[in-house]
Amino acid sequence: MLVLGVNEAVNLVSTRAWRRDLANLLTFLSAAASCSTCIIVAGIQPIRSIPVFDSRVGNLADKHGRLLNRVTMRLVADGGDRVAFVPSSAAPTPPPGRYRSTESYAYWADVLASRMGPLLGADRIATSDAEPAPSADRATVAEARRQLAVDELGIVDPRPRSVSTASRHWREPCSAPNRRHAP
């Protein structure tokens, strides 16, 4: 799920740069993800729905955000079945003095979930390159392997140290970690 573009709309990033950078990002994500991965791009929320930009000056950024959304929709349409666009809308007005509220996030979660649900159906899970969710035993083994790899790097000192928050001094001095050098 990609949620991006407010800064680009406010900074009036050119549509050419937006198209190029977003196309590069989508190409990279498509190549790096499994075939069952659906890349969902959320539209840029109406800029004037952000209280600090709810002004005449915000009109320009709001218009530019809509333009960037149109560019995004065209890119996504060319991206095939693995890429989807979910339009954004303004959340309910937050309480005074707050930019975002619990209600705002709940609203966006509902909007996104209702539009993403059909895109994330069971038919997207069963592909040959999708890794199964690890069982508890497999997760334990995987974690042990990760920990061993970190330990073998010799960059973490396993001896516990404590910090006296009152004095902000280490109880025992920090020493440089043992580092292995490449032969």
UniProtKB/TrEMBL annotation:
Residues 153-183 are annotated as: Disordered. The chain crosses the membrane at residues 22-44. Keywords: Membrane, Transmembrane, Transmembrane helix. The keyword Transmembrane applies. This is SGNH hydrolase-type esterase domain-containing protein. It comes from Cryobacterium sinapicolor.
